[in-house]
Every structure is written in structure tokens, then in C-alpha cells.
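Quick board copy: two proteins, each given as sequence then C-alpha cells.
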Amino acid sequence: MTWRCTGIRWNDGRPAIGWCAEGRGERSSLLDHGQRLAFAARGERHCLGVRRAGKRTPCPTAATVPGRAGNAQCPECARLDRSFSVAADTNAADPRTYRVYLAWFGPGLVKVGITAEERGPARLLEQGAVTWTWLGRGPLMATRRTEELLRAALGVPDRIAYARKRAVRGRLPAAADRAREVAELHARAAALPGWPESLERLVCETVDHAGPFGLDGLPAPARVITGMVPGGAVVGRLAGAAGPDLHLADGLVVDTRLLAGWELVAPAEGGATAVPVAELPPLAAPGEQDGLF
């Protein structure tokens, strides 16, 4: 029986590494800031199949997946997964209540999105949102129309490249400044005409993830893993976690999406990090953030 990593999971606001094994379901290992991490990849990386309504259907062909792929699925499973995706507008009949949110990731990095109400703030943790607030709640299509309205009127996207979020995470303004920017955007959104009548508007209540992410003790990101290889090892001390990223004390960032699909085992005694990495550019000085992008 092989337990394969499924990437990071956020359990009640705490990061955890997820695992699955065919016929044994899923489990997770909670992580604590400051703990030592040490693991190595064994064998080949395999497709994790499709997960729907909390249950995972294994890949019928047990296909292998490239080590540098950001998604641990074969093309067939990825297509099936997308056929149920709200984000891809392929499940418009979903009867659940949804919420519209405003998420702030760094200076100038703000997006509007939707998530199922039953998931609570999990989506914001998964995306690495530093500060955020709800905007409204209602049926799926009403929240989708609101999302489009606010994106156009406020000039904010519904997606932000993850490398951009990571690049600014090591130097952020104070929590009060983050909250003020989000509150100002919420006020602008609330003043716009054209909100669907079936959407219940929600007052601004900003939430900050500095605690769950460990932002106060986070080193500037210096290197990021670009893929795992058989025998590749990661050894270090966990400084914090945000979205799918594990930030180690030496500045290495481990994107757990690249761990998904691998069997992870203890590395050789006295082993050190030995995986493909890319150097990250130094952070811009205050006032030069626009130059990053």
C-alpha cells in the first residue's frame, strides 16, 4: 500500500499535508511553524485521479505525471475534473449558496472571486490571500454575475499568477494598512449599481491571515522548487505556509502542488535539500513594487 501526497490542506486555519492511498481513503498531517521537515520522493509521480464531494476516484490507468507539472492529474482525469468545475462554468445548476469575496495578496494585487458558502474561508487560505472580506452571498449565478460586475467596475482580475503573490510576500505593509485598502475597495463595490437582487450584501469585516501564514517570521523568498525527481530531498525548518507554499527558514519555498502524486519517505541520514530550484529575484525596495511586474 502506497500513501501519496496530495499537497497542502488547510484544516481549521492550520496547514497540513494531505495523503491518499487506494482503498484506504485520505488523511492529513498537521504542520507547525518551526518544525523540522525532511522528506524525499520515491518511485514515480502518479495521477491522483478525481476528487468530488470529498471522495477520490483513482485514475483508471494509474498514469504517471511529469515532475514539473503543476497539477498531479493525467489529461483524462483533468478533463473529468473540469467537467464538474464551478470556476469553468460547467456546473451552473449547483444548488448551493455561494459567497463573493474580495482578496488582497500584496500592494496592487487584489482579486474578486466566489466560493461555496459551506467551505467557509478555506478558499482564501488555499489561494494565499493575506487580507480579505466577504462582499455578498446568494445563488451561484447571482454571485457569478456580481463577480463579473465588480471585476469590470473596480478594474480587478479574477485570477492572479501565483508567482506574483509569492514575490511580494516577504515585504508587506502593516496589517492596518492592508485592512484599510480592503475596506476602501469594499466601500467602492457596495456603492456600485447593478447588483443582482437575489444577492444578499454583506458588511465589510476584514480578516487577516498573518497568524495562520506565519507572516511575521517569514524570510524573504530566495529560491523556489521547480519540480521533484526520484530521490530528490527537502530538508529544513518550516517558517510559515501560505496558499500551497511552504516557506523554509533558509528562504526556500516548497510549492506543495509539485509534491502531489509522489510517495514521500524519510531521506538518507544526514541528507540535505537536493531538488531542482530556481533563484528568485530580490524584493524591490519600498516604493518600487510596481517594478516587479
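And the next:
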Amino acid sequence: MSNSPTVKRRRLSAALRQLRVESGLTAAEVAKQLDWDPSKITRMERDEWKRPAPHDIRGLLDLYGVTDERRRDALLALARESRQRGWWADYQDVFRTSLPDFEAGSSMIRTYEAVVIPGLLQTADYMMAIFRGGQVLHETVFERHVQARLTRQEILRRQDPPTLVAVIDEAALLKMIGGRDVMRDQVRHLLELARQPNITIQVLPNSVGAHSALDGPFVILDFPSPDDPSLIHLATLTDSLWLETPEEIQRYTLTFSQAQASALPPGESVRYLSELHERLQQE
């Protein structure tokens, strides 16, 4: 089972919503019987809460007629475990999204990037160049943002790392972020990562022209339990957008598969990166 509190809270929300539907009660009826504000039920079922209270869960289980002790214990355990703090809680001033927590609980991460290297694959110098290029942060906070992102990357080195499949547009590799030396080291880092059995990197060449992912970067997160449906993450300048309906998952999964098919195969992508690294060394 995932060690991510955010994944567990999402699972708990879905389970409570299903139990209410099975009981035949509306959210308004549940709120009235428990003397709660109706919006409380809505927030719980939409996973718009932060720290589930076990006594609230007990009240709902009683109301829904859940008497099986094993089922009750499992849901109460979810409530307690979803209240725990992960490492990312110490970087709440840095992360404006729950993406790091979902990444920590995932079994597979599929990402398409158009103009930058995916965050999980960036070097510290490349990160710093991005943050400085944005010119929206004070110099004193750059290092904290870099450290947070480096810590986020540790999921790829843990004992049971998720599988990471990254399709990177060639434009991101040719953009000299941080200058030639920074990009040379970044490309070398990609070559080293591509040797890891859980990481696949594919380059989508400019020569392909129009392709399925032209609308922009996205991340697909899959989880080890069938109780945790896949998620789509879209980043914006100020926030994050999460998509999770079956239709949205199918659309983005197909888009990623088509982008993969347009990209160079993994072996050819490694050769491309090797040749690019040589050119950056010589110039």
C-alpha cells in the first residue's frame, strides 16, 4: 500500500462517497442526520480536506450501516494515516501542488515536456538557471527551491522506485538554459539516468513536426492499487490542475502513447543524447 498520505486520503474520499451512494442517502440527508454543514460532506467526498478526523469517519460508518469490523478498521486506519506529514510538508512555501506526494505513492510516472527537462531529471545547476530566469523569486529563496526539487527526486533512488517514462521535445534539449556548460552537464545527467532500469527517456525530434502533445506538458500518475485510479497533472504559473475522470485519463494516455510513437526509441534517444553531449563538449 502506498506510503503517501495524499493518496490514502484520496482513497478514503472515494470509499466514503461510494458508501453514501450504497446507503441511498444524499449528501444533504447525511449532513442533517449528523448535524453537519452540507459543505463538509462535499469537501470530504471531493478530497478537499486536509486532516480527516477518525471520529467523523466513525459517525459516517455508523450512519451507513458498516458493521464489518475489518472494513471499519481499514477505513479508520486510512483516516489516521492520511493525517501524517510527509517530507513535502516542510516545503509548503515551495510546492503549490500535491504532486510530490502523489509521485511518492505512484508506481509509474509518464511525463511529456516541451521546453524544459522534466523536474525529476534536472540537475541542481539547471534548476537554479530556471528559477533565476523566471526573475520572480528573490535570490535568497532560490536554494530552498532547488533543495526541495532535489529531495523530490529521491523517489527515483529508493528501494522500490516508480517507473519513469519521459518524452522530451528536442526543443528542450537545444535551449541553452544556464549556458553551454550547464546544458552539457544536464545532458550527461540524462545519459546516466537512462541507464537505470526504472527510467526510460525518449527524445521527440523537431523533424516530426506536428504531433499529439502540442497542447503542452503533462504528467500521468499511475498507482499500485486498483483502488487508486490514475491522475493527470497539468501545471500553470500559479496553480495546478488535476484531471481524473475516465474520459480524461483515456485521452491523455492515448496522447502520451502517440507522442511516444513519434519520438525516437529509447536506444536511438540515448545515441542522440550522446552525440549532443559530444557537440557541447567540443563547442
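Board note added afterward: The radius of gyration is 22 Å.
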